[in-house]
Task: structure prediction
Amino acid sequence: MLNTLNGLLIAAVLAGTPLLLGALGEILTEKSGNLNLGVEGMMFMGAITGLAGSYYYEQGVISSGGTPNGVVSALIALAVSFIAGAFGALIYSFLTITLRANQNVTGLTLTIFGTGFGNFFGEYIGQNAGGYVAVSTVTKNAFSRLNIPVLSDIPVLGPLLFQYNWLVYFAIVLAVIMAWFFNRSRVGLNLRAVGEDPATADAAGINITAYKYAATVIGGGICGIGGMYMSMVTTSGVWVHDCVSGYGWLAVALVIFATWRPAKGILVAIVFGGLTVMRMYVNIPGLPAQIYDMLPYVATIVVLVVTSMRESREHAQPKSCGLNYFREER
Amino acid sequence: MSEALQYAVEMHHVTKTFGKVVANHDVSLELRQGEILALLGENGSGKTTLMNMLSGIYFPDHGEIRVKGRAVTIRSPKNAFDLGIGMIHQHFKLVDVLTAAENIVLGLPGKAVVNRKEINAKVAELAQRYGFEIDPAKKVYNMAVSEKQTVEILKVLYRGADILILDEPTAVLTPQETDKLFAVLRNMKKDGKSIIIITHKLHEVLAISDRVAILRKGEYVGAVNTAETDQAQLTEMMVGRPVSLEIERPAVERGEKRLQVIDLTCLNSDGIKALDNVSFDAYGGEILGVAGIAGSGQKELCEVIAGLYPSIGGSVLYSGSHDGVPVQERILGLKPDEIVKKGISMAFVPEDRLGMGLVAGMDMTDNVMLRSYKSGKGIFVDRKTPRALAEKLIEELEIITPGVETPVGRLSGGNVQKVLLGREIACQPSVLIVAYPVRGLDINSSYRIYDLLNEQKKKGVAVIFIGEDLDVLMQLSDRIMVLCGGKVSGIVDPHKVTKDDIGLMMIHADAGKEIQEKEA
Amino acid sequence: MSTKNGQQKEPWIRMVKRDAISQKKAWAIRAAAFILSLVTGGIVILLLGHNPFSVYTSMVVGAFGSSTVIHETVKIAVPLLITAIGISFAFKMKFWNIGGEGQILVGAVAAGAFGLFTAHIFPKLPLVILMMLASIVAGGLYGLLPAVCKAKWGTNETLFTLMLNYIALAFIKYLMNGPWKAEGSSFPKIAMLVPGARLTKVLGVHWGWILALVLVVVSYIYFNKTKQGYEIAVVGESNNTARYAGINVGRVFKRTMFISGALCGLVGMLQFAGADYTITEGTAGGVGFTAITVAWLAKMNPFGMLVVSVFIAMLERGSNTIQTNFKIPASASDLLIGIILFFMLGCEFFISYRLIRRGKEEQNA
Result:
């Protein structure tokens, strides 16, 4: 029983981490007043580019007669996936911030584009690699669970807390930093003002365009890293067609569930992660596995409806979210 | 050099257009060091637009701006701050979910980490120096209007602005609060700050300013020393011709009781009583004026009667006739379409013309049929009749528009109001409620609107006129009901009371009794 | 910020709202954007080592080159078009229904409930009518749910409808693995619709295409000539104005979302009984999302949607051909659609605004 619970918790953390990364990226984006529904697209872009980055690095090193280094490979995946997600967000930002296109439609288009981008290049690189893309054991090991001396060896707590892959800790640290950033830093305060009331922030001398671009592009980069987690950890460094499908939207749901608070996002990510893997651990007689899959979505709807009934002013979606800002509008 | 330093701000030949609308044309204006300059002009004369070019909200199409003798480009509010220019906008620019202090330091450079204790202390200290009372840790969404204004002013002072622009700061204040504000402004002037105050209220101009600059239809008319002028001269400069500000009030015999409102009570979104036991009658052939400080329950009153806002008590009785048959109905709680179905013709010109009364993106035909599209059988709309009506309105009310197909949002304020009022009058109402019908209109359009209201009165319509300018209210209305904090402080005959009496009733709900006694 | 003489210049480029632009000019801008998007796509193709002209030609031929492929193209266009029409009902009143996927799926399931289990009871015509009605009701109710919450509490419909997509998807997976699993299959899948219950073909494609064309005309009339269409437009512009005009905003939300969901549900039935003959996780296949961009690009005009959906169907069908001919993965269509949409979304800005370069305002004024 305890073993099952431990196993479920560990699996929940592992499954929740890409969702957390996607959600963190989207929280940052929404705090600037941009509702980017392209999370899934950006995750796809990060997933394929991260994988491709490591793959080509390995191929390059091997063809020049060397041995690939796992850490370098992982860092390349991190950087490349961030850049790819940021690139997707940059397209979105240019269209919505500079050219004032509708945010919903642009975000959906980004999802279509990103999905196409991921699957297309996944297959294309696979074709050229003779069937499918996969990274070597060196890189796989760099994304497998850590073995921290002493800590990882503590019974029960060791596996529960100190034996995850490094991206898990990366995501948690990022969430904590973001929570601090929104609440305590000056730039974070300014950013919140931009998302809540851009006209006011503008009158206060804050450069709306710069803030929106920066938050959206960095947010997109974080989503990209979340996608890279999917291709490097979840599918163990092999490109699987449609591997991100649905997870991007789940990340958007997580944002709502976490009521736009990054620290709360950590807990919600574990819950969501748990719900997505629960069927493998808990078997309630009469409840089929696929019904478990609905739970995160049903829970999100419940939260949506409940928060709309309560009408909270804080801990809600930034007020200007989804609306474009144009100073000379008249 | 010395001459250059004489001026805090100089604007030379500034022009700004929005699409085809010229908001400012070739305006030149100076603000001297350490003076209070009143910027006077009618609604729509371009005062706010001009000042927004100083505060970095808009960028001029043409012209030059010099601050403290140096030619500058003000591209953003940040540039304006850097030059020491701070503007207090009419619509407060504050972030609701942040505290007073957070709003005040917003956008300022400083340490990367916000130390809330420190900024709260700093803000408290600044507030004390000028005699403001404020809790720096209070969230803006919990604040009253005057508190928000205080935060706005502190925000500008905190930034070390020495050129302050206030856009109609008294519009939301009671007379007492206005006096307090003026005292603070005089203190600031003593401090050596240069101040521009935008207003269209003449007595305030005379009370506070050193000089007056006048704009008319986006153009600069001239400037005069306040000590050397009077209301008549200022009015003439503002309007462009000598104006008798007399408004006609035709004598019409009072008709039947059309609307009887008894003990009407409703709550605002915070659960506070927006209307508190309001009772009055409206008669055919009379204009009932409604006076009060902004936010005293005027909006709720109109919308409750029109069926757009929920009430928690009281009743509204309507009596009139429909096709010759007498109709008597309790209309409280009915939706607008249900009121129409009962055969009641009540027209309502709301305050928010393009956000409630009209659809900005639709053409005139589609707007004219807004209230009548359901008439006629079948599932299809009839656009022929409304189109004909739209064309008739254009002709009769001299509405300036490229045609019935132009979206009404593109028309000027006065023409928008003519479309709205024209449509409402066309349904031949027996009760007509108009909320702030001349807000934002120039004098000509305003007088056309007064004429239209008088015509309706002559036809025997019961007109309820929500106004803000006491002079207009007193000249146009047959009776005036004064609201104060959602209560009726009294219903008076404008012949028999003074403007000061009404002003008193606006701020003291109890003042009405004495005045009504005096009147009797 | 400061230049050499301490003076600051005006920004080198500014934008100003246009008053109005002639239709001709607007279409010229759109055409230019479209060509630019093809050029961008062409560069991608070039970088992959192919000749963009032959790839594009191959796509067009692959979509329209023979009656067989035309049938395929139409088969792709029909669900896209009907879903886009359905979605535009909601979008016209600024109700962001991005739950087309889910509504299609529940429509398919409802049709499947009759098609798979009552085919031996009913003759074909009543069966098809039953399937249609079931899919309309199911899709409609699925669309109604978020509208009820929005009308009552103002619940955010974008995220609500989105979540419903995945609930429907999980439900289909449940049916595939459990109660509806085809007998004798080791693989989780739902049985095929018996040939006798499948939709009749007219000119080589199931009659859904005729229905789609009828819906184009009917919805155009509905939007522009009926009282309900007028109500939708007013609600879309301003809820306050609608209430003022005596329109029951909540009722319009509910009624219109029912129609919107019902049309999407109908698509599910057409896919099930006319195209796939079974229900899978891919029954909606992203149509619900692509249709949104179709509706948006056509500015909610049904005739425009007809053109756009045929075009997108051409890209999707054509990308299958380039996969065989050039070994370019079929996902290229999504990539290309994305690029084209980006350009079309961006170009609207240049229709609404004009740019003024420093010191150039005289010439333009």
